[in-house]
Amino acid sequence: MPTRGITPSMKKFKIAILAVAALSVAGPAAASVTPHAQSSLVLSVTVGTAAPNGPRPTPKVVTLRCDRDSGSHPTPRAACDLLRKVNGNAANLNVDPGGICTREYIPHTARLLGKWRGRPVSFEKTFGNRCEMIKTTGAVFTF
């Protein structure tokens, strides 16, 4: 297991980012379908943290496109609807501010990277547990 350089999980995330970048290149046909640039995103959730000298957790990675809601995300319409409300800025999501979660600590790191209507966007935040992540981000990181 490498301790320096690119880990297998980093390779998967980078490959997914490159795939979305390739998909986000819109031709004339795509421009005629939507009045604005396409939105193509790579989302990942990593559960836990790396133990000293141990393997890093492998992130679960999905793709999401929001101008024809699609991708490998299990609920693209719900996720895209939430992102539309905040113009693609995941940091502004606060789906259930009054929600109650347990105090267990099982860190969930949510990441989003890609283009929102042609504009580069990124987001990364580590939540104390899955409940904290879902009450803040809703369907966006529920996969």
How would you describe the overall organization of this protein?
The chain is 28% helix and 22% strand. It is built from four helices and four strands; from the N terminus they run H-H-E-E-H-E-E-H. The chain has helices spanning 8-23, 28-33, 76-85, 130-137, and strands at residues 40-47, 60-65, 108-116, 119-127. A four-stranded antiparallel beta sheet has the order 2-1-3-4, with helices on both faces.
Give the overall form.
Answer: globular
Overall mean confidence score, pLDDT: 82
Task: Work out the number of β strands.
Answer: 4
How is the main sheet built? 4 strands, antiparallel
What's the helical proportion of residues? 25-40%
Radius of gyration: 16 Å
Beta-strand share of residues: 15-25%
Count of individual helical segments: 4
User: Class by helix and strand content?
Assistant: alpha+beta
Cα(first) to Cα(last) distance is 27 Å
H and E order: HHEEHEEH
Spatially, the strands of the biggest sheet line up as: 2-1-3-4
Low-pLDDT runs:
15-34
Secondary structure layout plus pairing:
Blueprint: H1 8-23, H2 28-33, E1 40-47, E2 60-65, H3 76-85, E3 108-116, E4 119-127, H4 130-137
Antiparallel strand pairs: 1-2, 1-3, 3-4
Please supply descriptive tags for the structure shown above:
143 residues, alpha+beta, 22% strand, globular
Give the structure's gist in a few sentences:
The chain is α+β, with helices and mostly antiparallel strands.
